[in-house]
């Protein structure tokens, strides 16, 4: 039998970070709120209500389209997509079909090993980006199902890829880069925990060297990168086994669900076609006509994208793993940028932020937002640079800042950690060290430079680490 390859495409649903919903004035942030409280007749699908498109959502969707290198279509319109489900109160979803907002884009992404080293650079084409409103949410409790319509009407971007992905690792790496881009342009918060980004993954098999696209299995509603990767790995193995048993691919498109607890898929139904949804133009919303000047004014507001930012950090001397850490966390990146701006030293900024700070936060089981902010970190660095405390003492202070939330000045004063820099005090300590370490002095006079380390160490121990090491060395050289 000829070797088989997997063909994978994704449909990504990303909630847009707007104040209100897609077609009404209801609060778009329903997370943690009581069920069915951020609703109105429009998003509940009451007869006779009229949808009004959210201008902010349209701008954010255009931003995302431009960041994905898509062509923004100057004329597009909304359509009704019909299906019947308890969490879709109107019986149809307002989406886009024949004339989407944007089409023909591309995303460049990287495949890295566990150490963060780049193994390969890949490209995935974007077929289209269109806008739509979300459905509500169902909660299943035994034989009963509860409906919460708080999420109904939430503005979504649906981003559809070409079948350019060849394995689960590529799909996950692409999805992570896509998330970074959407966050960078502030089109979506893409908070996976809050369900702001979800994936439908389609996978089929074909013989290597052929171009035919065979019937596919679509895995619905994957809500994490881990679930995306595991579901695709499982489904690829299942389809390979089926091919061996039947001698060929699936007989028709199917839709499956991923069961996280069992780590396997189960058949839901045969996949619907566009005809099943009975699309037709939304009669209550006129076509959306975008002027060139308007689109270009939005393009002018685009920030540097994650790939460009990462290259900048690598050029500063950071490795790929460190640079990826920074582009993955905006708060951490702002901390690094602040420290780098003050010190002018990327290596030192990396040591303080990515090694020391993250190490203490992880040990304390705290997130970056729960630790010291940038001004607090800059105050600590200033105390080290002006000689108030030593760099070694600075680590101890930072650890206490993470644990207590207090600032550097408070901790230094309370713990009595000020560095000893007074010349007379240093001379007294050095004289005592020389008297207490006659063998080290003899070794030094015999030509062993390293013997001075024992004397410096004695001074640091006696001063509880507070003696200024540079002044100790200078005083010792004078004394000898």
What do these coordinates show?
With 480 residues, the chain is an alpha+beta fold. The chain has 3 domains: 296 residues, no CATH class; 87 residues, no CATH class; 57 residues, Arc Repressor Mutant, subunit A. It is built from 16 helices and 16 strands. The strands form 4 sheets. It has a 9-stranded mixed beta sheet. A 3-stranded antiparallel beta sheet has the order 5-4-15, with no helix packed on it. Helix 8 crosses helix 9. The longest helix has 22 residues. The radius of gyration is 30 Å and the shape is elongated. The mean pLDDT is 91.
Q: How many distinct folded domains?
A: 3
Radius of gyration: 30 Å
Percent strand equals: 15-25%
Strand order of the largest sheet: 2-6-7-10-1-11-12-13-14
Number of helices: 16
Instruction: Tell me the distance between the termini.
Output: 83 Å
User: What is the number of beta strands?
Assistant: 16
The general outline is elongated
